[in-house]
Known about the structure:
By secondary structure, this protein is an alpha/beta fold. 46% of the residues lie in helices and 11% in strands.
Amino acid sequence: MGKVIDPFWAAVASFGADQILVLPEWIQRKIEVEQTIIPEGITGEMALLEKEISGCMKCDLGSTRKNIVFGEGNSEAGILIVGEGPGATEDETGKPFVGKSGKLLDKIFASIGLGREKLFIANIVKCRPPNNRAPSPSESEICGKYLQRQIEIMKPGIIVALGASAARTLLNTRTGIGLLRGDFHSYMGTPVLVTYHPAALLRSPALKRPVWEDMKKLKSFMEEAGLPRESKGNND
């Protein structure tokens, strides 16, 4: 007499072992998120904030973006670079300053010994304004609150504002960038150095000279303030 097979297990066997052991995709994602180890300190707080705003739809920019550009770099170094908003390349990649302006920016900071591992780069708005227009006042106000929280977490020793839009938003002023650059200002008690946006240099090479003067001021300030800070992870 042949072996009697339970109908339930017969049905299970028909799917194949590989199919039985594969969890539904939504369960896999939930497990991955819950098992993600969030670092402690500044890096961990920044990671939590990035996760929090990953699906933000608080303004119209959320409906046209491809990726949120949270920011990138060393959040513990004490040097924060703030631009206006993501461009097309940044929207595609989710990374700040990766187009032509970004390559020029890297060269500018390299001239005073700074690489991206020694600073953090963010923008006034995290989503690309259509056609690379300037962010509207309401967009800057809404998204600027995320930047404010980044600053509160990082407690940078210096903020470098790139371009008129970033400078005016951070300093709450309508003064032109030609008058703002060259001096140190303050945002929430943090020194702010204003300089031209690298995109402006691509259009007007004559601006390279004043930017170089600004970079020399930045270098002197960093030396006096002990910046960039050494990341705690390097002290092990």
